[in-house]
Amino acid sequence: METKLPPHTGDELSVVDMHAGGEPLRIIRGGYPEVKGDGVLSKRRYFREHLDHLRKALMHEPRGHYDMYGALVVDSELPEADLGVLFMHNEGYSTMCGHAVIALGRYAVDYGLVKEPRSPETQVNIHCPCGLVRAFVEYSGGKTGAVRFLSVPAFAFATGVTVAVERFGQVTVDIGYGGAFYAFVDAQRFGLDVTASRSRDLVDAAAAVTSAVKSQVKLHHPTSDDLAFLYGTILTDGKDDFSSEPTANICVFAEAQVDRSPTGSGVTARVALQYHKGLIQLNQSRTFQSGATGSRFTGKAVEEVKCGDFKAVVVEVAGRAFYTGASCFVQEPEDELTGGFLLK
After folding, report:
1. Residues designated catalytic
2. Phi/psi class of residue 171: alpha, beta or left (left: φ > 0; alpha: ψ in -120 to 50)?
3. From the CB of residue 7, how many other CB atoms can be counted at a distance below 10 Å?
4. What is the pLDDT of residues 44-86, one digit of tens each?
5. Which ranges constitute the DSSP H helices of the chain?
């Protein structure tokens, strides 16, 4: 039986929903006006300044929820890109999202954004706000499967930085970049376990660290000031030495939003930090487990590069994404809550 809306007034927004490692991705297919700008970063600024009401309509309740994540496919100024993308969440717009790249890789092949899919892998070049990310999608018999991607240059921004954290005192963190900046700290510093402690306690500790780092550490990125902000804090199990056993972490980003996946850009930054410290070598693959869901991505440093004055690495991250549905949302003008709301 076909599901469709009765006659109504108001704009419609069509989406495809996916998840990677439990973290949702709402891909917006239709209903948005033109996003102006000469490049992906300028489109991100335009969206934030002129179309933010549409982000709230799809990410927030009643159509979304506090931890919803979204992506809008846009044109890229790079000739080698198959698509450009803007990422969005409960607070605003991120510069990189690994779980979304994994999902978008499948989506791009399945929805014809890549003209000639090839077996055993189809390359999909995705222009993210942080730069061009190359994804490789398993493809056989007309079906897509697992996805791996090669990151933008990832690096250790600073290690062993001490910040004063409200309620917790002096806390030592590492700061890494994997398309976005994250602070990393062992959850045991707060008497917590990333796989067993209450989510509320993990969020409170991570949010406090994020607030402290934002106010006490000045970040910079060699290529763009738009990238120079702390996206969130990742609490780890402290198992940074190389091992064939999984290491767990949980990421709290944006407005205290909890990533259900191992966090693709966080895995990228964590691998860069481990490589910087000499704890792993090139092409040593590690398994990263989400403290929230137990889902897993793999990550490994595959090439040494430079990013400005930073010694950096290209990191390969791999995982799976799955479809969960497709929807058509409406914004009826008489609805006082059509613009969206959040319960905190």
Report:
1. 97
2. beta
3. 4
4. 999 999 999 999 999 999 999 999 999 999 999 999 999 999 9
5. 40-50, 52-59, 98-110, 199-216, 264-276
